[in-house]
Amino acid sequence: MKKTILFFLLFTAGMAFGADIMSEESFEGSFPPSGWELYKFDGDWWEGDYWTQEDYSHPGPHSGTYFAWQTEGFGEDHSWLITKGVDISSYINQQLVYWEDVGDIGYAGEHNVKISTNYSGSGDPSSANWTTLRSAIVDGGYYQRTIDISGYTGTIYIAFQYIANNAGADWAIDDVKITGDTPPPTAPANVIISHDGSNVNITWDAVTNATSYEIWSCDTPDGTFVQEIAGTFPTTTSWTKAEANAKKFYFVKAVN
């Protein structure tokens, strides 16, 4: 009697994440960095009245040789150091990460970190809408700041705003990053399984964000599935393997 070959198919999406750095700046090159904007509202263009690239031993850089630095000069100081625009819409769990060191904290002033989704990328920042992400001033060496910006989408700009009047605390910024995770792929669709008498064949539609696929199998639907090491991928969205008469359960896993 001929045995009937039954193949049952499950499919799932891989849950792997890929952490990415969308933008990174350590101030080792030209200043302001390419695409960044330096804008000053008040005071003279005397060093210390606006953001500059420095290599002082105090506070010194967090890494490398240089860092971005602002201190109070003469009169009113109000300057902005603004990142280039970064499109974060293709990521999840987006974060702003940077290191800061504050000196002469007794002179106070304002150290504001802000975000905008409608800044033009150059010129007067007051023409855009800005939300303050952080304004606390803490002394005592370099600290890493990690701020959740996952509530924003599209192209964002980060601003480091310094305000003082005749006296203000020093502010050093270094190693600025905007990071995010690549979203996990969705489950493969239109999965088709067939058997030609000697081989099992599975095909499926390509999945956005998937970098590869895995085939897993088990003899029972509630057993422990193991990844198929044998078999081949004739195309990126098909798999085949010589398989004897048997009952098998399979799933296709998209991973990134």
What does it look like?
The protein is an all-beta fold and 256 residues long. It is built from no helices and 20 strands.
- What's the multimeric state? single chain
- Gyration radius, to the nearest Å? 27 Å
Low-confidence stretches: 1-6
What gross morphology would you assign?
elongated
The number of distinct β-strands equals 20
User: Proportion of β residues?
Assistant: over 45%
Helical segment count: 0
| Major sheet description | 6 strands, antiparallel
The run of helices and strands is EEEEEEEEEEEEEEEEEEEE
How far apart lie the N and C ends?
A: 45 Å
Mean pLDDT: 86
Structural class: mainly beta
- The helix content, as a percent range, equals under 10%
Quick overview of this protein structure:
This protein is mainly beta and 256 residues long.
Write the layout of secondary structure elements.
Elements (H helix, E strand, L loop, with lengths): L6 E7 L4 E8 L11 E6 L9 E3 L12 E4 L5 E7 L3 E2 L4 E12 L6 E7 L14 E4 L8 E6 L6 E11 L4 E13 L9 E4 L3 E5 L8 E7 L7 E2 L4 E4 L2 E5 L5 E8 L1
Parallel strand pairs: 1-20
Antiparallel strand pairs: 2-13, 3-6, 4-5, 5-13, 6-12, 7-12, 8-11, 8-13, 9-10, 9-12, 14-15, 15-19, 16-17, 16-20, 18-19
